[in-house]
Amino acid sequence: VGPKPLAGKNVVVTAGGTVERIDPVRYITNDSSGKMGFAIAEAARDRGASVTLVCGKTDEAPPHGVRVVKVDSALEMREAVMERLSEADLVIKAAAVADYRPARQAASKMKKTAESLTLELVPNPDILLEIGEWREVRGGAAATKPFVIGFAAETTDVEKHALDKLKRKKCDLIVANDVTAEGAGFGSDTNIVTVYGSQGLAEKLPRMSKRAVAERILDLAQAGIASNRPS
Ligand code: PMT
Questions:
Q1: CATH number for the domain that contains residue 30
Q2: What is the pTM assigned to this prediction?
Q3: Which residue from 5, 109, 117, 160 lies 20 to 30 Å from 166 (Cα-Cα)?
């Protein structure tokens, strides 16, 4: 039991990879384990928040004291997140959302033939971008709620791509991880992140447990929420 700085706040966290079905037994996904998002959800819960964890594919055990909404695809994740936005004070998008999905989903198991097979993929909606746009349309320049934090999983030019995502997706903070670094990104128990805000670099963190990263992200979120509060 300690101070509960997020008491009374509704926090939505996304975690895990989305699953984009090809047919009833095959799908496209990615290496996200859900650990980063789960750590954030647990840290927010321990700070007194009411937490909804929207999660895709993961082997992590559902955390107690957190509302868990299981989803499969990016389209399902979008629906689960967007319908909770008006109540949310803080949204943190640690999920690895598939950028594309199969154009068609076969109703029954696809049969093998001697021919080569081309899978047509169509773009998925960008949920983070839609959250930014939703907030802008709803509140104009005064839009401060929810406070929105995105992640950027990068393999090259981390800072450049992260700053581009921060601006384009209209979020308040972006947490960049170089997923090629040892002990960072997908699957590991630790992460190495740099957080950027509209003023540029907010915090560069060394390798630490995902829970410790989560605590630092929430510190920054709390500071952001406090400074956004209309006087
Ligand atoms: O789950 P773990 O194994 O613990 O790994 C953690 C992690 C590497 C998955 C996590 O730290 C991370 O970086 N998550 C974001 C992964 C990702 O999809 O990055 P991106 O650069 O492709 O997307 C940028 C942001 O836009 C993300 O907040 C993502 O949730 C969001 N996005 C992306 C595509 C899309 N269609 N909709 C989105 O909302």
A1: 3.40.50.10300
A2: 0.96
A3: 5
